[in-house]
Amino acid sequence: MKLALVPAAGSGSRMGGATPKQYAMLCGRPMIYHALRALCDFPEIERVYVVLAEGDMHWKGYDWSLPEEKLVLLRCGGDTRLHSVLNGLKEMDADAGDWILVHDAARPCIDRESLERLVEGVEHDEVGGLLALPVADTLKREDGQGRIASTVSRAGLWAAQTPQMFRQGLLIEALKRAPSDQTDEAGAVEALGYSPKLILGDPRNFKVTYPGDMILAEAILKNRMKA
Ligand code: CTP
Ligand code: MG
Hints:
This protein has helices spanning 31-41, 81-91, 112-122, 168-176, 185-191, 213-226; strands at 2-8, 25-26, 29-30, 45-52, 71-74, 99-102, 128-134, 139-142, 148-152, 158-167, 197-200. By secondary structure, it is α/β, with parallel strands linked by helices.
């Protein structure tokens, strides 16, 4: 069975809006709606679990029109993204062998083709994997004083996205032991000695982080609605 888990318990401090960024409006809907819509519409995913902050007062203020039989709300957010994911994994109804697709609420532009590539590329894998993009820009390491210390080769470097897809049993084990500097599921799985599989993502599935990102996300979603 394949299940989705969407951590949505962050505060969006870099976005700095009046509401947490997952509720910032994009094309007339809260940002998280778009990610949930894509996951609910993907036939292979049987249920979509959303992890909200315990005291979330925002969710109930919107008309979601999402399939109720597929969507499950959990109010068990933690103090970091990985804690929110681990709390959600403990509360959701899943078995050790089930595939869990963990997807950020802050990536509203996830597309069906990327989900298909991920599922096809990972569902027969021993370890699991994630969407990621080969780094395109030239990379500079800073010296701590706003100047370049060195140029870092981008050969073999990928930028991690979500969804990240792992079996429930391995994911719980990895997240329980995750070193505190890890921020994604793959990093926690790597720390156990495994090598997750890289699946080509799409640049449009970027993480909305700063206020200026909203314009780009809105343009991508609008463009897709027209097609
Ligand atoms: N997240 C979460 N629980 C946390 C922190 C983050 O569920 N304690 C979620 C966010 O809601 C988001 C995803 O993890 O969907 C990715 O995190 P990020 O983009 O960093 O969002 P925020 O932590 O909310 O933003 P910031 O780091 O700017 O405060
Ligand atoms: Mg954060």
